[in-house]
Amino acid sequence: MNLRPLLVLVAVSGGCGANKGLVPPALPPTSAAPVIAHAEQAQTAAYAVHVGKATKVRTIDGITEYQLDNGLQLLLFPDPTQSTITVNVTYKVGSRVEGYGETGMAHLLEHMMFKGSPNHRDVSKLLEARGGQSNGSTEYDRTNYFETLPASQENLDWTLDLEADRMIHAEISPDDLKTEFSVVRNEFESGENNPEAILDERVTSTAFLWHNYGKSVIGSRQDIERVPVPALRAFYEKYYQPDDAVLIVSGKFDEAAAVASVEKTFGTIAKPMRTLPASYTVEPAQDGERTVTLRRTGDVHIVDVQYHVVASTSPDFAAVSAAADILTREPSSRLYKKLVETKLAASVGGYAQALRDPFVATFSTKIRDAKNVDKVEQILLAEIEGLGASTIDAKELERWRTSTLKEYELAMANSQTVALFLSEFIAQGDWRTLFAYLDRVKKVQLADVQRVAKLYFKQSNRTLGRFIPTKEIDRAPLTETPNIADYVKNVEGAGVKEQGEVFAATLDNIEARTSRKQLEGGIKAAFLAKKTRGAKVQLRLRLHWGDEKGLQNRSTAGDLMGALMTRGTAKKTHQDLADLEDQLKAHISISSSADGMSIDIETVRDNLAAVLDLVGEMATTPSFPAKELELVRQEQLAALEQQLQDPGSVAFNELGRLTSKWPKPDPRYAESTQEQIDSIKKASLADIKQFYKDFAGAGHAELAVVGDFDANAVGREVEKLFASWQTKKPYARLDNKPFGVPGSAKSINLKDKEQTTIGMAFDVSMRDTDADYAAWLMAAQILGGNEGSLLWQRLREHEGLSYGVQAWATAGATDDAGGLYIYAIVAPQNLAKAKAFILEEFGKVAAGSIDDKQLQHAKDTWIKDQDTSLSDDGYVLGMLSNHLYRNRTTAFTKQTRAKIQAVTVADVQRVAKKYYDTKRLTIVDAGDQAKAAAK
User: Fold this and answer.
1) pLDDT digits (tens, 9 = 90+) for 518-572
2) What is the DSSP letter of 290?
3) Which one has a higher pLDDT value, 114 or 155?
4) Cβ-count burial of 882 within 10 angstroms (0-12 exposed, 13-18 middle, 19+ buried)?
5) pLDDT value at residue 26
């Protein structure tokens, strides 16, 4: 198990949903009264009011476990360096325990839990009012719900009361289920637009004959559409109990007060009288290769192959994970070198997913040229199934080990991240499996990798896309779930050396701690130094160059240059750079465009100087290897070609082209996806090298650093590396302007797509210092900026048409260029209704139909969301960098907040009437028009 994909999933998770597969509904009419009465009777019979005490069990790496006598397990992870608290409730129930006719029930129930209880209706809206962020997700072995709020005992008490209340008092009413059905269906349809995900789901379902891992978490459309409310409630009452849950609290809180609050809220829930049956279905050993074919619209060929392997707690799992990494890691792996570097395929990937019961190892590759598919498949299978008999270099194993341990160390520096990804280890049977797995990672040997590869990566254990009978019986051994108690009994933990300092992330504290100075070489710097957990530090260096005349027809070279700068230097190869990045416990990103470049670093204090030296080498002495250009070209072409059939990409690309009218040679010109593809195909290495020679360099730059570091030392190091590296061409900022295009409407037909994307926009002359700016922001916030907004309440809560809908406003910081944007996803058959409802709500704002309650909610959510974001060092890094570019400090942010607080209903009404005009809206929708017409 490589921790990196898991941590990325945790970091970017946006919107409640199943992590593998997605589903819809339609409900038989049922009276609410009998259901509610049944619920009340059940609760009265099962729960005698009492207060349970929490008993301390153990502490590992700052995580303390408590046990309540009703069966609830409590994990506390205090981190005084945070300004927030995170509460995460993990129920050990997922799609694995669903019975016949119950597929997708765990995921549907997750959605219903956000409807709340009689005392906490509309959970998301309640959290938003407190400045909190919430989410939930469902997987094979667990369901979790979490909230992150500004740190206070009041917020902690309220959140614990919320979670305890909906553990036993969720309404699950027929009316709520009716509106949520279409939302879940829209989520399902959104997932159906991704051929790669659907192919993976089909292969998995073919690989498993009996175990529920073969069924997607989202479930069967028919099961969800027909589920009766009593059945859903029975599922809820069976599994949503304290003895089947683990409560995690992390962030800034008082441990004793938190324990007392948990006892007061969850401790009053009695231990249930029922006993949950143990799962006993075991997937038999596969006795021959299996095949599956998926035919859908798209432009990139994909091959996916899976092999049954072991459970995450098996002694062999770490070795299986290492084997998958050795086969697919970029750029060192066998598959990368034989498929990607030879340009037969655009990308390769692979992993062994960590689940409670034996699952599969998955390998996939994308192929742009149909003529290469057969050859790629042959090489793919030969390399995977030949790994056990091949010679594995010790460096291959150490790269996996170093990278895995790096991800763990960086993750443990963020208590919120730990609180969320602990759910995955709880799902495996015990939260301590995290530390047990790391112990196994340290002990894996080359012989272990070869042994497991021989056992599991074989023809008879393969699911691909064809069926070929075999004369020889050669089956993988049957595996079962190990004894988890034995697996974790000797876990002690590695310990965290750096605990960090208490730092309240407010604008005043950030400003007081930030120092600014002008460095040599035209670099403006902002340093926010503080002690952080794990001594973590983040840095961003943004460089600006060129002018309107000099950058004509240079956009593609500018875009490609940054990607190549991490692929080799005068002294180091791509592999050397990748190895050093892991050894230095760093993440390095370099991205560029026609008019500048951004360098981002995440690492630990003691390695920052070495990482800066490495980045300096990448920036100032790139070798631009010819073969790497071809690899980058393939990757970008594959990504763009996939966008050709993606409704969201198509809709917003066209929306940008219709509203921006810069001429084609201009670097600000909005290229179509096909134009981008054509430009990348034509780009030459000579063009990129010349662009670097002409423009790359400091002279006009901003440096922002946040975390544990020495500001003087960093400033000196940056000056040493970049002060003499100067851009050679004149620099003049590329300005922006509104084009004021008249409104128009365009529908784009994308066949066989289950979800349609709607995009709307118009531009205005607006700067963020204008008198109208604060009211301009609040008008958009009321329209679609939060879960209490007009669009969200209409399309999602009341009509149940959309899984996601949003509106936002922009204004220039250095130009008079602003705009309003609206986004929604819907089923094709709901397109006409959704557009009509959006325009209807837009018209309400334009007509000035805004009241004090709506405005106050918009103000509160806007400011509280910003307050919560200030606890994220990455957000603060971006804020400081932007302020440097705009010659501002946090004083500007405070002034904007004050202006927003002063906005009146009359102000919003005036601004809305002034700017909101349906005749100026450009409207684009992309999806299957035949399905929309067949409503």
Assistant:
1) 999 999 999 999 999 999 999 999 999 999 999 999 999 999 999 999 999 999 9
2) B
3) 155
4) middle
5) 27
Residue 708 tokens, joined? 């544990």
CA distance 15 to 9: 12
Confidence of residue 467 (pLDDT cuts 50, 70, 90): very low
> Residue 421: what are its φ and ψ, rounded to 5°?
-80, -10
Q: Do 272 and 242 form a contact (C-beta atoms < 8 A)?
A: yes
> Which residues are CB-contacts of 484 (< 8 A; sequence separation ≥ 6)?
313, 428, 429, 430, 433
DSSP label at residue 726: B
Structure tokens at 856: 């106050």
Would you say residue 904 has pLDDT above 60? yes
Average pLDDT along the chain:
90
Question: Beta-strand (E) ranges in 192-317?
Answer: 245-251, 301-308
Q: Note whether 845 and 785 are within 8 A (CB).
A: no
What are the DSSP calls for 531-600, one per residue? --GGGEEEEEEEEE---TTTTTT-HHHHHHHHHHHTSBBSS-BHHHHHHHHHHTT-EEEEEEETTEEEEE
Measured distance CA(48)–CA(69) in Å, rounded: 13
Structure letter (DSSP) for residue 351: E
- Burial letters 656-674, b for 16+ CB under 10 A, else e: bbbbbeeeeebbbbbbebe
Tokens of 110: 């997750």
Cis bond before residue 331 (omega within 30° of 0): yes
pLDDT of 68 reads 97
Beta partners for 147?
Answer: 87, 134
Write the pLDDT tens digit of every residue in 103-146: 888 898 898 888 888 888 888 888 888 889 889 999 999 999 99
CA distance 119 to 674: 53
Q: Are 400 and 2 in contact (CB under 8 A)?
A: yes
pLDDT at 41: 32
Nearest to 152 by CA among 832, 864, 784: 864
Q: List C-alpha distances in Å: 165 to 120, 149, 161, 525, 552.
A: 8, 18, 6, 49, 61
To the nearest 10 degrees (0 to 180), the angle between helices 317-328 and 446-456 is 90
The two three-digit tokens of residue 792, written as one number: 């969200």
Q: How far apart, in whole angstroms, are the C-alpha atoms of residue 678 and residue 690?
A: 20
In 120-273, the DSSP E strands lie at 120-121, 133-138, 143-150, 245-251
What DSSP assignment string belongs to 303-327? EEEEEE---TTSTTHHHHHHHHHHH
Lowest mean pLDDT among 3-12, 219-228, 617-626, 640-649: 3-12
pTM for the structure as a whole:
0.86
Query: With bands split at pLDDT 50, 70 and 90, how would you rate the model's confidence at 692?
Result: very high
What is each CA distance from 562 to 340, 512, 568, 626, in whole angstroms?
20, 34, 11, 14
Report, in this order, helix, strand and coil percent for the chain, each rounded to 5: 45, 20, 35
Torsional class of 251: left (φ above 0), alpha (ψ -120 to 50), beta (otherwise): left
Q: What is the pLDDT of residues 638-669, one digit of tens each?
A: 999 999 999 999 999 999 999 999 999 999 99
- Residue 701 CA to residue 596 CA, distance in Å, equals 9
Residue 397 has pLDDT above 50, yes or no: yes
Rounded Cα distance between 304 and 203, Å, is: 7
Q: Side chain identity at 321, as an amino acid letter?
A: S
Q: Per-residue pLDDT tens for 532-542?
A: 999 999 999 99
CB-based contacts of 745, cutoff 8 Å, min separation 6: 922, 923, 924
pLDDT of 9 over the 60 cut: no
34 three-class SS: helix
By three-state DSSP, how is residue 347 classified?
strand
* CATH numbers and ranges of domains, the chain: 12-268 (3.30.830.10), 301-488 (3.30.830.10), 507-722 (3.30.830.10), 744-933 (3.30.830.10)
